[in-house]
Amino acid sequence: MLLLLILADDFTGALDTGVQFAACGIPTRVVVGEQVDLAASDAAVLVVDTETRHLPAAEAYAVIAKLTREAMSAGVFSIYKKTDSALRGNIGAELSALLKTSGERRLPFLPAFPQIDRVTRDGVHYISGVPVTESPFGIDPFEPVRCAEVTKLIHLQTDMPAQNLRPGETAADKTGILVYDAATAADLETAGRQLFQNGTPPVLAGCAGFAAFLPELLGLSDGSVVETPQLDPRLLVLCGSVNPITLRQMDTAEKAGFARLRLTPRQKLEPGYWASADGKAALAEIEQMLAANPRCIIETNDAGGNQLTADYAAARGIDLDGMRVGISGSVGQMFGALFGSEHLGTLLLTGGDTLLQCMNSVGARELEPVCELESGIVLARFTYQGRTRYVITKSGGFGQEDLLVELADRIAKH
Fold first, then answer.
1. What is the pLDDT of residues 155-165, one digit of tens each?
2. Of 31, 204, 322, 355, which is the most buried if we count CB atoms within 10 A?
């Protein structure tokens, strides 16, 4: 029976939340798309990537409202609206859709992820010590976060009442969207125990930070822990993130010996490039790189910034959203062409769009989360044409500078 439905707005977010349950041995599925039969699900936990982050707010509202109605009709025990830990996406629209459609009086919302230094203090969301609007997420070219005060951010998309709660403050007499402060993982745990004192709340919201406590709070965990499987020591990083933190991680990896390839503007944005003669020649060169180097990076950033790609797009009338979709789609097509390579080992994909298009290219609409390698870094697997591949996924914008090197070393030793 489906006990918990998790609604995430992108693929990496779906995985970093679903893995909190899978790593405890709880049957968990992660699927893409709103067309899913909730009544027929054989998992205890189902995570649906609704792909609503980049939709207009009204469309995102409609998708969440539809799935909430279906979940209620199917007798789903509880619904968790997974939000981005940097507050990207249609936060206000999706939270209000869940609360209004469910008919509940209140929706507890815990946006903090202290495990990766993303906290909420006095209602303001901070990334590594600065308000989210002053972090790299405030200047993201595709989805900048415009407001660090969470209730104000929510009210950009809804008139649903929203108020902030300090640690330890009770929610008994409050209604609407309730935004909980949390500066530590202990704050999240304390809030969770308070919320579950009188039974399981039918609706909840937050990111993977709070989801880490849900297996125990829901009584689903028996204390078991899934061991990390043995992985192919060869590592290919496919990076679609423009976040400066991720760029520094790749710079550090390159200095440590990773082979690094930056795709050209034409390779990223010309429709059908990888099926052309030039594309096939480029694929052959990538095969040679993979054969010669056990640690490789292929990324979508230009050296020294992305002006070359911006100029290429502008000359062809491609807007920002067209760039985002075009680049991730091209990476997916390249991945599909390389999938059968004997030189392809363990994969590490950054960015939800990149992950989605890579999985689309091989017809994979579902990933099985296995375990976390560390907070926010998920190991998952899928099988296609009889071949099982392990994929490490992470969103951009967090982790130490030597993260890629450390992961590669860990895989090789294991």
1. 999 999 999 99
2. 355
